[in-house]
Write a structure and sequence with these properties.
Order of helices and strands of chain A: HEEEHEHEHEHHHH
Largest interface: A-B, 37 and 40 residues
Radius of gyration of chain B: 29 Å
Number of domains of chain B: 4
Strand content of chain A: 15-25%
Oligomer: heterodimer
CATH architecture of chain A: 2-Layer Sandwich
Structural class of chain A: alpha/beta
Number of domains of chain A: 1
Largest sheet of chain B: 4 strands, antiparallel
Distance between the termini of chain A: 36 Å
CATH superfamily of the largest domain in chain B: Beta Polymerase, domain 2
Number of strands of chain A: 6
Number of helices of chain A: 8
Strand order of the largest sheet of chain A: 4-3-2-1-5-6
CATH topology of chain A: Nucleotidyltransferase, domain 5
């Protein structure tokens, strides 16, 4: 079962609903945009072999996160890697209520809609999600994606002698912006830390001349 | 739905009244409905007369001020865990104050619809709310403590313990000057002039009945409303607002604000039916708020917690505002404030050292760079610092570096906590490139001076304005000597530095109009820092280096020294010294008014006179730049 078998006609309704949202054009006003800040916990770092253990996400509208509107799903696992359990503390079929991968994706798509996705080192999380979608014969995510690891560097002054590091971890960001590292290494906890970091980064960047969504994507 | 985030919220609010008395079920019920709101510094949460929000707020991170914009008085300052914006929701009225994010904030917005039924069920919550509304204070518990601490009749003198306006008693003037209601306006005015006072209490049978101030003369006499032969009764403000003598500063401020008056009368029992003890004016509040630097220094030195220093720094800002209002010479203000800032930094280093497992392996020095190093930092800006330690045998170097890097991390974090933003270019001692042994620093400095590209000039310009913040002075002197020796060997470096000093954009355009920013957030405002202050600072640095004068890093002191060294240019240098001070004062005023760094100025907010003053300083800038061009023959070499 690959992409070839599923033409856009026989894609499930939930995907079509998701897809239809992208027909509307997004507001140009940064304040009116909706952001979904997400984090995934996985069994490992391979897009092919590893699986998503949990997806956590929070929604930001005009600088506000509603506690009620958070996304927190734990996925049933066929593949189980012992090594990563001690990092995330997510035991296979632990106390948390788990749902199937496809159901989690369906719920996630309904949650994210056409919002702008924000993640720390977004490439990894989006890659994991897209691979999961592909396994179920679904196309890739259509959302615009921002990476806090990348936009953070825009707040730094570049000069020849003091070069920014190529990579900043979420821990380093939390440290820089004095965000409590409580609940680190849970998908939702990390998503929240990333969200606060994102708000603080954009507030600093707003002073720049041509601040806009486009500027962040550059 | 209970989730990690709601748990996080519940975990936080349960430590603060009135949430501390809630059972965990109601707590979670509340927490699940909370909105987490991020507010940028200076943004408004609600304004006066705005209709009620559906939420009230708890400060999670940062601080919020409640002000009355018409009097620009800060009524309350809400820190982490404080609630605000609740009273209007219970009283069913519009907001009476403006809430503004004093710092970058994260707020928890709690829906009133859910809170109300919970509050009604719980007696303790109701009592807390009633008390806090009735006493008009945020936290009635603090007030009851005040009573116990100060409910002493003999307590005449102000206790010089704490500098927090919440607890500190307001000192008032006890030398009362009074007259009767039948006194003529002329006579009253003569009395006030003779005694050099701004207000006069009117009494009948020794009981206060009214008050006249300078303002009353202006509004009611000079305007022609009353002849000077009329009695003071016709112009006095009555009834007087009276208070008992154990009044805290915050209470006094609130009382003045509430009745929109500038003088309170202190009476024996707090009512107008007992004799007056003294008058408390707005000015008294101002002075006691900032209190005096010696008290603050003592308070800073006594703390062992960094968070406490942050609170004390608030008083430093009040002090600064007071000084500027009283027009005290800026050189003096800068000295006092820098001294206080230095003490804060020293204390942060001390506290950080205590956090380390072992004492430092060798001697070290903590250097303040940039504006702090020049003692020109009046407002909070970025932190720029570096660390130098004694040379160690090569095999010990990695170990020693690791130790000092860890120490630096503690210090920079502590400085961040007390209000210094991290340097966006990472020029901080916590960066391995800025935490080096004396030998390593010497090599680095030699490299900068020997290979002066534009970046090296920028780096060294930050670095040459350093001062010792903590530690071993000999290390610093050693570095200074090294710099001067090296500069002598590479005279071309000075030319580059001079060239760098001329790179700042010009403050005025061809028609002598102000050049304003073309775009961005600060469109149409004037960049005071890079267009006016920086050229002066840069020029002073290159000139003083060329004279090999060490240990003076302050810009106006540098100009004063230059005036002494080159008597023929004395006039220009003194003009520059004056201009620097004037500009810095300007910037500080702007910064305090707008609660920012004061770097950008809205020209339309300036009076004609202020604009003229600014332009006069530009003349000095132009002339000093011409002098540098000529002296270092910039055009010949680089032109």
């Amino acid at each position: 079962m690959g992409l070839f078998n599923r033409t856009s006609k026989n894609l499930p309704t939930f995907w079509k609903n998701y897809e239809n949202l992208f027909k509307e054009t997004q507001s140009k006003n940064f304040k009116e945009l909706t952001f979904v800040v997400l984090d995934t916990e996985t069994t490992g770092f391979s897009f092919k072999d590893d699986r998503i253990l949990s997806i956590g996400a929070v929604k930001i509208k005009d600088g506000t996160i509603s506690v009620q509107e958070v996304f927190d799903s734990y996925l049933e696992q066929e593949k189980f890697s012992k090594e990563t359990v001690h990092i995330h503390g997510l035991l296979k079929n632990g106390q948390r209520e788990c749902i199937s991968e496809i159901l989690a994706l369906e719920k996630f798509l309904a949650y994210v809609g056409n919002a702008i996705i924000v993640a720390h080192h977004a490439g990894f999380d989006i890659g994991m999600l897209n691979n999961a979608l592909e396994r179920h014969g679904l196309p890739k995510l259509k959302n615009t994606v921002l990476d806090t690891g990348v936009i953070y560097k825009k707040t730094l002054i570049k000069s020849y002698l003091v070069q920014p590091k190529p990579n900043y971890t979420l821990d380093e960001l939390a440290e820089k912006f004095s965000i409590s590292r409580k609940d680190r290494h849970t998908a939702l906890g990390d998503a929240y830390i990333t969200a606060v970091a994102f708000l603080k980064i954009t507030s600093r960047l707003k002073e720049k001349k041509n601040f806009s969504l486009k500027y962040l994507l550059r | 739905m209970k989730n990690l985030i709601s748990e996080r919220v519940a975990d936080f609010v349960k430590n603060y009244p009135p949430f501390n008395v809630l059972d965990s079920k109601s707590l979670f019920q509340l927490a699940e409905q909370v909105l987490i709101i991020y507010k940028e510094k200076n943004s408004i949460i609600f304004t006066i007369d705005e209709p009620q929000h559906s939420h009230f707020y708890v400060v999670h991170k940062g601080a919020v001020t409640l002000n009355n914009p018409s009097t620009s008085n800060i009524v309350d300052y809400c820190d982490e865990g404080d609630i605000f914006g609740l009273r209007p929701l219970f009283a069913n009225e519009n907001y009476k104050l403006e809430a503004r994010a004093h710092e970058e904030c994260i707020l928890y917005a709690i829906p009133i619809d859910i809170f109300k039924p919970i509050a009604k069920q719980n007696d303790q919550v109701t009592i807390f709310l009633m008390e806090s509304f009735a006493s008009n204070t945020r936290n009635p518990y603090a007030k009851s403590q005040k009573g116990q601490l100060y409910d002493n009749e003999d307590q005449e003198e102000l206790t010089e313990e704490i500098a927090l306006p919440d607890l500190q008693l307001a000192s008032y003037s006890k030398k009362l000057v009074t007259c009767s209601t039948r006194t003529t306006i002329k006579k009253a005015a003569d009395m006030m002039t003779k005694k050099n006072i701004g207000s006069l209490l009117i009494t009948t049978n020794e009981l206060p009945v009214g008050i006249i101030t300078d303002k009353d003369f202006r509004n009611k006499v000079i305007s022609g409303e009353q002849p000077i032969s009329a009695s003071v009764k016709s112009i006095m403000t009555t009834p007087v607002i009276t208070y008992p003598k154990n009044l805290t500063i915050t209470q006094a401020q609130m009382a003045m604000m509430k009745s929109n008056i500038s003088h309170l009368v202190i009476t024996e029992d707090g009512t107008p039916n007992s004799s007056a003890l003294g008058i408390l004016s707005k000015h008294d509040v101002m002075v006691s708020l900032g209190d005096n630097p010696a008290v603050l220094v003592k308070a800073i030195k006594r703390t062992s917690r960094i968070k406490k220093i942050k609170q004390i720094r608030k008083s430093v800002m009040v002090l600064l505002t007071g000084y500027l209002e009283q027009n005290i010479p800026l050189g003096l203000i800068a000295k006092i404030i820098s001294e206080l800032n230095d003490t804060c930094i020293k204390q942060v280093v001390e506290i950080s050292l205590a956090k380390m497992d072992s004492p430092p392996p060798v001697k070290f020095a903590w250097l303040a760079l940039g504006s702090q190093g020049r003692s020109e930092q009046l407002l909070h800006t970025d932190q720029d610092n570096a660390l130098v330690f004694e040379n160690v045998p090569e095999e010990d170097l990695p170990k020693t570096t690791t130790y000092f890097l860890e120490l630096s991390k503690h210090v920079t974090k502590g400085l961040n906590t007390i209000g210094y933003e991290y340097c966006p270019a990472d020029m901080m001692a916590s960066n391995p490139k800025w935490c080096l042994s004396l030998e390593e620093w010497k090599n680095k400095l030699s490299y900068w001076i020997g290979n002066p590209g534009p970046n090296e000039v920028l780096m060294s310009s930050i670095f040459f304005d350093y001062s010792l913040a903590y530690g071993e002075r000999s290390l610093l002197d050693n570095m200074s000597d090294h710099i001067f020796r090296t500069v002598k060997n590479y005279p071309i470096f000075l030319v580059h530095l001079a060239n760098g000093a001329l790179q700042s954009p010009s403050p005025t355009g061809f028609f002598r109009q102000f050049v304003v920013e073309q775009d961005g957030q600060h469109k149409d405002s004037f960049d005071l820092k890079s267009r006016a202050l920086r050229p002066l600072v840069d020029a002073a640095r290159v000139l003083i280096l060329s004279h090999s004068v060490k240990a003076i890093s302050n810009t106006w002191e540098r100009y004063e020294k230059l005036a002494e060294l080159e008597p023929n240019n004395k006039e220009l240098y003194m003009a520059c010294s004056y201009a620097t001070k004037a500009l810095l004062k300007f910037r500080t005023r702007q910064g305090l008014a707008n609660h920012d760094s004061g770097r950008f100025i809205q020209l339309d907010q300036l009076s004609k006179q202020e604009k003229m003053k600014l332009k006069r300083t530009f003349k000095a800038i132009k002339e000093i730049q011409e002098l540098i061009t000529l002296r270092f023959k910039i055009t010949n070499i680089l032109g």
